[in-house]
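ugh ok fine here u go
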Amino acid sequence: MTQDEDVELARSGDMDAFNRLHHKYWDKLVKTLCRRTQDIDEAEDMAQEAFIRAYYAMDSYRGDSHFLTWLTSIGINNSNNHQRKLRRRVPQHDVEIDSVSIFDEDSPESYCEMEQTKDSINLAYYSMIPEFRDCLEMRLIDELSYDDIADNLGIPVGTVRSRISRGKRELKKQMQGE
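structure:
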């Protein structure tokens, strides 16, 4: 069966067709969400939630874009909501000694510098406007075309180009400490 046939059957309530879609797109969705969360368990939870939401919203899928694009946008919205919740929490910086690995050739100072740099990059990335971050991630990490990003987010291609450009500038500015 083709994807279009499975989508149409799933829209009419065929659970087997939806299961085929689930099987076909699970890994791709988890991979996309894992790059956003950096946590495979969290990504799998969000992917499962996206599939559940997609199942109950199948009648709202218009077919204007590929099913995976529509499903990914549901997953990204879940991820954005999750990130907003995380930003509201007070960050915890406690580190268990067992989770730290320092090699003999690394000094404690170099390890601390590396961790600070990693923290700076994460802070700059997650403090960026979500619209810029989403477009940058889809382009640079997912390697999607501007047209696919526009379809995925439901915005014009010119807006995608603008957001990517502005996102790069903002990230560079934050990393330079301006």
